[in-house]
Amino acid sequence: MIVISYREAIELLKKIKDNEDVSVHVNLGLEIARAMLEGSEVIIKTKDCEERIGVEEIKKIAGDRRFCFLVEGKTAKRIAFFSEETNLYYKLLPTEEAPTFEISGIRMHITKDVKPMRNAKIQTKVLKPKGIVLDTCTGLGYTAIAIAKEKNVEKVITVEKDHNVLELMKFNPWSRELFTNKKIVRIIDDLVHYVNKAEDRSFNAIMHDPPSIKITPELYSQKIYKDFFRILKPGGRLYHYVGRPCYKRKKYRIENIKRRLLRAGFKRIIDYKKNQGLLVIK
Q1: Do 119 and 68 belong to one domain?
Q2: Which domain holds residue 43?
Q3: What does the pLDDT read at residue 109?
Q4: What is the DSSP letter of 234?
Q5: CA 210 → CA 55, 184, 206, 242, 263, distances in Å?
Q6: Contact at 8 Å (CB) between 62 and 13?
């Protein structure tokens, strides 16, 4: 599989030469490939595959910052699709680092001040996970991947209910470790249902990075906070990303979330306003 964005396309156009191998980045910056111009087409070779693509196609990609593209069968296909099941449009969106994704125009990661994978590492550093960890919303898997790399972590259980997100993830080179790291266990389930049936005191830490409260109010509810408290071991830590709107909009002000967490039984909350999240300790 070869995936490129405007960044790799611009590099290709600058470097390719007639019948001469050049070194270029592919798979959204994660892999080095060999490329050669042959007539009106470019041959791209990685260690696992070889694809051809027209120069004109590469030029189109170079001018399009809205999509990532799968190079296949001499064409470039947008990694995007509409789901009749959810009535939503999903797409992989390039950044200067790992890609993010959008669901019907709503971006699922911070991309302005910090890049997606970098942000996952920052959140993990705050959480200081160990033992068995619950990652509540898989998304593209960046937080699960970052947590699994911590030496004191035994297992990461990551939960995602949307099959369409999982399908999108398969085309994202930055998500590969989600499928190869043996510490990571992927669960397809509704989070509310999963935590409701989870055993008491079964997790050492929880990473809770849900979509906005407008999209998933149930993931900011009193009920789910009570379940988080119940399934955490004594001294367990919860990092809860809440996002800028929860600090700015009166209707969803951060104080309401803190009150619900305290009502659920948590005793200590540390506000990481700069990171738009809360560290909550049982």
Answers
A1: no
A2: 2-78
A3: 67
A4: E
A5: 40, 19, 12, 8, 20
A6: yes
Q: Tens digit of pLDDT for each residue in 149-192?
A: 999 999 999 999 999 998 899 999 999 999 999 999 999 999 99
Backbone conformation region of residue 82, classed left if phi is above 0, alpha if psi is from -120 to 50, else beta = beta
- For 148, the token pair is 């699994």
CB 278, CB 240: distance < 8 Å: yes
Exposure pattern of 10-46 as b/e (b: 16+ CB <10 Å)?
bbbeeebeeeeebebbbbbbebebebbbeeebbbbee
- Please, what sign has the CA dihedral across residues 249, 254, 259, 264? positive
- The model carries a pTM of 0.89
More confident residue, 212 or 245: 212
Write the DSSP symbol of residue 29. T
Given 26, 56, 78, which residue is the final one in a domain?
78
Q: How many CB atoms lie within 10 A of CB 155?
A: 16
Euclidean distance between CA atoms 39 and 115, whole angstroms? 38
For residue 202, give the amino acid letter.
S
Distance CA 150, CA 132 (A): 11
- Side chain identity at 97, as an amino acid letter? E
3-state helix, strand, coil in the chain (%, to 5): 35, 35, 30
Q: How confident is the model at residue 242 (pLDDT cuts 50, 70, 90)?
A: confident
Q: Answer whether residue 95 is part of any domain.
A: no
Which element (helix H / strand E) includes 61? helix 55-62
